[in-house]
Design brief:
about 25% strand; 7 strands; alpha/beta; seven-stranded mixed beta sheet; Rossmann fold
């Protein structure tokens, strides 16, 4: 097994192990930050949104509030146990789930108005390839959001302290993230880097 494949297997094992307790520290402040993520994406009624690294589906209620019953959410995660937790929440029929690595979803080009990658980007071994795939899946004019609702420095410390498969997983600093988004062909690029909130925004040219 090559190194990249071994890292992926290790990460799946890590998230499977923690899936049943993942939602334990959610609170009103966290909910407000998740709402901010979706609001910044610009998601509107009737749109299709891809939730990359959905985990236990914490972002899905906020996306559904934005897109309504005429919209759709496709929630992707590599961990079957995380997806099992998300499915158990009983979301409506316009939410579908896909177990896959973002680099190998098999989804067609230009399928989504918005792609949101919340609390997952640090875990991608090849961040450039992951971004290119997310951009591929966006419709022209669509928005890509990469976010983390506890902030860059905080999450980097959490990962270092956790050790194991995520010890080296980092949220990129703003200048590096802006460069990555630009290299992926996005425009209107900006990064919000607050102590308790991180968000990178880019738009696929129309």
């Amino acid at each position: 097994m090559d190194t990249s494949r071994r890292r992926l297997v290790d990460k799946v094992g890590f998230f499977n192990k923690h899936a049943h307790t993942w939602d334990g520290e959610r609170n009103d402040a966290m909910a407000s930050r998740l709402e901010r993520v979706v609001h910044t994406s610009g998601a509107r009624q009737g749109e299709r949104v891809l939730d990359v690294g959905t985990g236990t589906g914490v972002l899905i209620p906020h996306i559904l509030h934005a897109v309504g019953s005429e919209g759709a959410v496709v929630a992707v995660d590599v961990s079957p146990e995380m997806l099992a937790q998300a499915r158990a929440k009983g979301f409506p029929e316009n939410v579908s789930f896909l177990q896959a690595d973002i680099e190998h979803t098999g989804l067609p080009d230009a399928s989504f108005h918005r792609v949101i990658c919340n609390a997952a980007f640090p875990h991608f071994s090849d961040k450039r390839h992951a971004l290119n795939e997310m951009v591929r899946l966006l419709l022209p004019g669509g928005t890509l959001i990469v976010s983390h609702p506890i902030g860059r420095e905080a999450v980097n410390k959490v990962h270092m302290d956790a050790g194991d498969a995520v010890a080296e997983d980092r949220v990129p600093p703003p200048e590096a993230m802006r460069e990555l988004l630009g290299q992926a062909g996005l425009v209107d690029v900006y990064v919000i880097d607050e102590p308790s909130f991180y968000l990178a925004h880019g738009r696929k040219p129309a």
